[in-house]
Specification:
Blueprint lengths: L1 E9 L4 H18 L3 E8 L6 E8 L2 H9 L1 H10 L3 E10 L4
Antiparallel strand pairs: 1-3, 1-4, 2-3
Helix pairs in contact: 1-3
């Protein structure tokens, strides 16, 4: 399994639109990708313009498929001007 985390700092004026759009992205990823096993979204308690994603994919190939998917490319195009920063990290896991 591959865990992917993303920390977004969203421009405050776009927070509401980004939150709606990232929720659609999560729904699409889980519905359209057999190898996307989890896609959680959290917002900072102190600053709702800071968004954290926790995603689990079967493996690196599944994540690469995700990055090439039409719904991801649409999400990226729709939100690129709304984001100040995005930190993407990959993790081994989960382990039992």
């Amino acid at each position: 399994m591959l865990v992917v985390t993303v920390r977004f700092a969203v421009k405050k004026q776009h927070s509401a639109a980004f939150n709606a759009r990232v929720r659609k992205q999560a729904t699409d990823s889980l519905a359209l990708e057999d190898d996307c096993h989890r896609f959680d979204i959290a917002a900072s308690v102190d600053d709702p313009s800071k968004i954290f994603l926790y995603e689990i994919y079967a493996d690196e190939a599944a994540f690469q498929d995700h990055l090439r998917s039409a719904h991801f490319l649409s999400f990226k195009a729709d939100t690129q001007d709304w984001i100040e920063t995005a930190l993407v990290e990959r993790w081994d896991g989960p382990r039992t």
